[in-house]
Design goal:
Blueprint lengths: L6 H30 L1 H18 L1 H4 L36 H37 L1 H16 L2 H12 L3 H27 L3 H8 L4 H37 L11 H8 L8 H28 L7
Length: about 300
């Protein structure tokens, strides 16, 4: 096939074919590694189930999560002398607990994924700029990182929410204001090492622009640690959101959140065990799945641990 084309085109075709072949082999190895790692596969299944529940919340919910019926407040789950329509019982306002738990999945995933995306993007940019340019740019950016780290997170969240007001967008931004520094520090350290490598020096010697060197040569080489941090911090974001909602700093009611369900149920802990048990289990299982996937990604993407 290559003999019918000129030498230059034949060589180009062969290189592209080899690159696609290596890329395909790499994905095959990653997939085989996932199938071999039972704990990682279990984590992926958990996250997929949680995502499906969040997307199909209107279909899976038996009734509206906002419908109140005070005459049926704190009804036990169906298998514990409860009514068949309320599978997981009701809360203190007579709302179906299963429906509120399902809709709470949406808030946790939205906050977790968007906070990870925002913090990862901003921290990646800051780390690239500080590590590549160095000097005064590195000094000012890293001092800004130190300044952000010096503020207690709860105090920062309280001040921001008190000024702006609680909402889903504000919660995501509050969480993003603190976590991005982790990405920035890790990426800066990686770039400080990479910028002295031969391929970066070669790109500079042939007149490569700063933008091309940063985004064409440095960025692909620092994505692996960023993905690892993002996967490991997804579970932490869900816990932080639940903690803020538990303290009354999260998404305002009546929007159901897992942390809000825990906060509402803590008063009825001894008389209605289900109002705190099921949200706690949902948080625990989801965070466990995220951590299992994060550990697997670290083993696959970290070159120091890579066994593929």
């Amino acid at each position: 096939m290559t003999a019918e084309t000129p030498d230059g085109e034949s060589r180009k075709y062969t290189d592209e074919y080899d690159e696609e072949y290596r890329y395909g082999r790499r994905w095959q190895k990653i997939w085989a590694s996932l199938l071999k790692d039972k704990s990682a596969l279990f984590g992926v299944v958990i996250l997929l189930v949680v995502v499906v529940v969040a997307v199909l919340a209107p279909v899976l919910s038996p009734v509206s999560p906002y419908e109140q019926l005070l005459s049926r407040n704190l009804k036990p789950p169906m298998w514990s002398d409860g009514e068949r329509i309320y599978i997981l019982g009701t809360d203190h306002l007579g709302r179906d607990f299963l429906s509120r738990l399902i809709y709470g999945t949406r808030v946790s995933l939205i906050v977790g994924f968007f906070a990870v995306f925002i913090t990862g993007t901003f921290g990646l940019f800051v780390g690239l700029m500080a590590g590549y340019f160095g000097g005064k740019v590195d000094f000012f950016l890293m001092r800004f990182v130190d300044l952000v780290l010096s503020f207690p997170f709860i105090l920062l969240a309280l001040a921001t929410i008190a000024i702006v007001g609680p909402s889903l967008t504000v919660i995501i931004l509050v969480m993003s204001m603190r976590i991005w520094v982790i990405y920035a520090r890790v990426v800066r350290g990686e770039v400080l090492t990479l910028r002295e490598q031969e391929f970066v020096q070669a790109a500079r010697s042939i007149g490569g622009s700063h933008i091309r060197i940063i985004f064409r040569h440095l960025l692909p080489n620092v994505l692996a640690p960023v993905i690892i941090i993002a996967s490991l911090y997804l579970g932490r974001m869900i816990i932080i959101e639940a903690g803020l909602s538990f303290l009354g700093l999260g998404v305002p009611p009546p929007t159901p959140t897992w942390g809000g369900l825990l906060s509402d149920g803590k008063v009825h802990l001894y008389t209605a065990w289900w109002v705190v048990t099921f949200p706690g289990l949902a948080i625990t299982i989801t965070v466990l799945g995220a951590n299992l996937v994060g550990d697997w990604l670290r083993n696959v993407l970290d070159p120091r641990l890579r066994s593929l």
